[in-house]
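Q: Please design a sequence for this.
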């Protein structure tokens, strides 16, 4: 059995890699319980000794509340950990409790990457390579969208899968999508639907530059023709800029329309093998989708109970449909 000792609260400090947080009501409930039960009934925190100070590995919330309550000591277990072990333990505890601040983790990872740390070596025991990449990508979110999502995450925790989808939208649309997450309470299924309806937009490929010919003296007739050609080119360029402006307006309008569609409690999702489905949560139906002359054609596959286990007929991948939550999740 591990030895529990009483440590002075002033000799404790948080570690810099803790990404845990509590919702307001959770912290209030923990504070009330600690105030009622006293320090002897509190589960011991886990610490490591470092330069005469005890660094908290697990239990920062209990320690901060103990400080608020005016406790002089708190029960603790002292263990030897290196920095990487502390990072992994903190993250694993937070994920198990469902309370990881992904935005803080993203900032920590970015700082470590700048120092040349091997993020895969540190975090791969806890996170998949794709999840590490998604966490890092959160640093590239449009600033306003990031502020909106971070505030919402501390109120209504968002999954890394939800954030991964938001990152895939163009930056100029991310604030609008983030606001929709807050106002319309979009879950994973709703966000996937948004991304699918919005579609992938690739930048218009640039025309290859023409090789310039050596300048030659021009005759009056050629000068006049060149002037007309330049004027025509300027007119075409002006028309392209005007069209680009229209495209920007259309893109904004489409984003608004896409967000409205998401409220209809329907979700598109694509299996790993490429088959596309649509789940209508109000009609309680799941349909297979195929394209015909640019139109979506739906084929009824089955009706839906409260939850449904679905299987792709081509590759065998399995999915779960949560009708009440409005979400669709593939798990391979």
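A: Design:
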């Amino acid at each position: 059995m591990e030895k529990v000792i009483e440590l002075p609260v002033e000799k404790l400090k948080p570690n810099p890699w803790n990404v845990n947080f509590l919702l307001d009501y959770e912290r209030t409930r923990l504070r009330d319980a600690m105030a009622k039960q006293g320090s002897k009934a509190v589960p011991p925190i886990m610490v490591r000794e470092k330069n005469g100070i005890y660094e908290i590995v697990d239990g920062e919330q209990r320690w901060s509340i103990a400080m608020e309550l005016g406790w002089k000591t708190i029960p603790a277990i002292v263990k030897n950990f290196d920095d990487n072990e502390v990072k992994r333990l903190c993250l694993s505890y937070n994920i198990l409790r469902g309370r990881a601040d992904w935005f803080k983790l993203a900032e920590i990872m970015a700082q470590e990457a700048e120092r040349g740390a091997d993020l895969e070596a540190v975090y791969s025991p806890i996170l998949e390579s794709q999840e590490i990449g998604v966490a890092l990508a959160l640093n590239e979110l449009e600033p306003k969208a990031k502020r909106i999502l971070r505030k919402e995450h501390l109120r209504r925790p968002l999954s890394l899968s939800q954030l991964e989808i938001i990152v895939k939208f163009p930056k100029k649309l991310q604030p609008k999508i983030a606001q929709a997450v807050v106002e319309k309470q979009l879950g994973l299924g709703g966000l996937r639907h948004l991304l699918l309806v919005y579609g992938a937009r690739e930048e218009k490929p640039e025309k290859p530059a023409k090789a310039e010919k050596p300048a030659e003296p021009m005759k009056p007739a050629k000068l006049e023709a060149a002037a007309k050609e330049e004027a025509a080119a300027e007119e075409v360029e002006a028309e392209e800029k005007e069209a680009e402006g229209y495209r920007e307006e259309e893109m904004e309008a489409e984003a608004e329309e896409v967000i409205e569609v998401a409220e209809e409690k329907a979700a598109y999702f694509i299996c790993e093998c490429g088959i596309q489905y649509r789940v209508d949560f109000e009609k309680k139906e799941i349909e297979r989708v195929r394209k015909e002359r640019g139109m979506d054609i739906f084929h009824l596959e089955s009706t839906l109970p409260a939850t449904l286990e679905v299987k792709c007929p081509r590759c065998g991948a399995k999915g779960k449909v949560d009708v009440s939550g409005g979400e669709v999740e593939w798990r391979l």
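Q: Thanks. Anything notable?
A: The chain has three domains: 5-100, 101-183, 187-199+262-332. Confidence is low (pLDDT under 50) at residues 200-206.
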